[in-house]
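Good morning,

Attaching, inline, the C-alpha cells for the sequence recovery test we're adding to the shared suite. The designed sequence is right after.
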C-alpha cells in the first residue's frame, strides 16, 4: 500500500496568497475578472484575457471532472517516493479553469477521463494543498 504524499508548505506570494489561504479553510478560491468576467487559475495580478487589474476572488464549488491524467510510477523526491503509483490530473472545474492536482480515493487504474471528482484539502501546516477524489 503506497504511503500518502507528504505535501510541503507552498511558496506563497502576494498573487497566490488568497488561493492558499482558501485551501487552508478547505475552500477552492478562484479569480474572476470584474471587467470581462473571465475566471482564471493560477492566481495572477491581471486578467489573462483582457489584462484588467480588476480581479475578485470567489469560492468555487469544489466539483470537477478529470480532463486528463497520468499515473506517476517513479519520483525520486522524498516527499513523493513512497507514494507511487499515484495519479496527477488536470481537473476541469465547472467554473472554467483546469487545476493540476492529485486524484486519491481510488486505485490509479480506476481513474477515467470525465470522471466526476470533488476537492478535498490536506494540511501542510500553515496552508493546505487541494486534491480530488471520486464524487
Ligand atoms: Zn478580463
Amino acid at each position: 500500500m503506497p504511503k500518502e504524499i507528504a505535501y510541503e508548505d507552498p511558496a506563497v506570494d502576494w498573487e497566490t496568497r488568497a488561493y492558499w489561504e482558501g485551501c487552508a479553510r478547505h475552500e477552492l478560491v478562484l479569480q474572476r475578472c470584474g471587467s470581462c468576467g473571465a475566471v482564471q487559475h493560477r492566481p495572477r495580478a491581471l486578467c489573462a484575457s483582457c489584462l484588467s487589474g480588476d480581479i475578485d476572488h470567489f469560492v468555487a464549488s469544489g466539483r470537477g471532472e478529470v480532463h486528463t491524467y497520468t499515473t506517476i510510477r517513479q519520483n525520486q523526491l522524498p516527499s513523493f517516493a513512497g507514494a507511487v503509483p499515484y495519479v496527477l490530473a488536470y481537473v476541469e472545474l465547472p467554473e472554467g479553469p483546469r487545476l493540476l492536482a492529485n486524484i486519491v480515493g481510488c486505485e490509479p487504474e480506476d481513474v477515467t477521463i470525465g470522471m466526476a471528482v470533488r476537492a478535498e484539502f490536506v494540511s501542510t501546516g500553515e496552508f493546505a494543498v487541494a486534491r480530488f477524489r471520486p464524487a
